[in-house]
From TrEMBL:
Signal peptide: none annotated. Coiled coil: none annotated. Residues 43-152 form the PurM-like N-terminal domain. This is Hydrogenase expression/formation protein hypE. Belongs to the HypE family. Residues 165-316 form the PurM-like C-terminal domain. InterPro entries: HypE, PurM-like_C_dom, PurM-like_C_sf, PurM-like_N, PurM-like_N_sf. One of its GO terms (biological process) is protein maturation.
Length: 339
């Protein structure tokens, strides 16, 4: 029988999990297919014919616009900077397009754009061009922001989602789950806002700190939509490896764990905006941790697992009681409108 629900776009198609992958494979990539889109889908892409230049585009529809630790303006800058950084690039220019809903208060719009400008200047990233559109009341949710970032590769760094190798150690730069729970708590007025603050911040300086390791930095990824589970599953699939995590090593703040327990969420599936995972050879792991901890963004960096096992494309976790379970790619949208 026909299943009309599968022929419509769902919120889950924007979650960064399996439904997103299906949308890309069945609709987006076939329509845009070309040599430049083949291979693993990265956070940013090399510009053909321009050695060392990297480009990325991102859209931001977070609700609410303001949340503990950030807002849609600063988040747009941080998300764009971080997509460039995950390809080993430093940001050099930004463009911004803003879609505004009729009736939005000018003071609120001014606050969003001021925050965006402040974040861009703090990242050393000039806003060189942009566009502004206004749509009828009810045709948007106050404001949507689309950015394009241009970056230049840091010499020696060429991380890729397909670069993880057997024997690598998996490093995480900081605690997980704060952004998603902070946004959800504010949106639904759940009362966690006093304890949980988004980790939204730029990570390009942390990546720059890893430059002395050069090509030993095999893979970098920031676990945003779909959380750490989605990021690691994508890497395992693109690299053709098995990733084994240590549950006792995962840095999940107590407040986040409690909030997720109440809401029935898995912290591994909750979005982050200020941490990264890095894959480096086991013999360079301590060097990488030392370099990451030299930066404020990586002061809490830890080792959370290894690349090993015989089941390529799988992520498993060794539990605190000695068992083992599979960490699946999220299916749909647990937390819509999170970035």
């Amino acid at each position: 029988m026909p299943r009309p629900d599968l022929e419509q776009v769902l919120l889950g198609h924007g979650a960064g999990g399996r439904l997103t992958a299906e949308l890309l494979d069945s609709v987006v990539l076939p329509a845009l297919a070309g040599e430049e889109l083949r291979g693993p889908l990265e956070d940013a892409a090399d510009i053909p014919g321009e050695d060392g230049l990297v480009i990325t585009t991102d859209g931001f529809v977070v609700s609410p616009l303001f949340f503990p630790g950030g807002d849609i303006g600063s988040l747009a800058v941080h998300g764009t900077v971080n997509d460039l950084a995950m390809r080993g690039a430093e940001p050099i220019a930004l463009t911004v397009a803003v879609v505004i809903e009729e009736g939005m208060e000018l003071d609120e719009l001014r606050a969003v754009l001021t925050s965006l400008g402040t974040a861009a200047r703090a990242a050393g990233l000039p806003v060189l061009a942009g566009d502004t559109k206004v749509v009828q009341r009810g045709h948007a949710d106050k404001v949507f922001i689309t950015t394009t970032g241009l970056g230049r590769r840091i010499p020696g760094l060429r991380p890729s989602a397909a670069g993880a190798r057997d024997g690598d150690t998996v490093l995480l730069s900081g605690p997980i789950g704060a952004h998603g729970t902070a946004v959800l708590s504010t949106r639904e007025q759940l009362g966690f806002t006093a304890d949980i603050v988004s980790d939204s911040r730029p990570l390009h300086r942390l990546v720059r700190a890893l430059a002395p390791l050069g090509e030993a930095v095999h893979t970098l990824r920031d676990p945003t939509r779909g959380g750490l589970a989605a990021a690691l599953n994508e890497i395992a699939l693109d690299s053709g490896v098995q990733i084994t995590l240590d549950e006792t090593a995962l840095p999940i703040p107590g407040q986040v764990a409690a909030a997720c327990g109440i809401l029935g969420l898995d912290p591994l599936h909750v979005a982050n905006e200020g941490c990264l995972v890095a894959f480096v050879p086991h013999e360079r792991a301590q060097d990488a941790l030392r370099l990451m901890r030299s930066r404020p963004e990586g002061v809490s960096a830890v080792s959370i697992g290894q690349v090993n096992g015989t089941r390529p494309g799988r992520v498993v976790i060794r539990t605190a009681i000695g068992g083992e379970r599979t960490v699946d790619m999220p299916l749909g949208e647990q937390l819509p409108r999170i970035c």
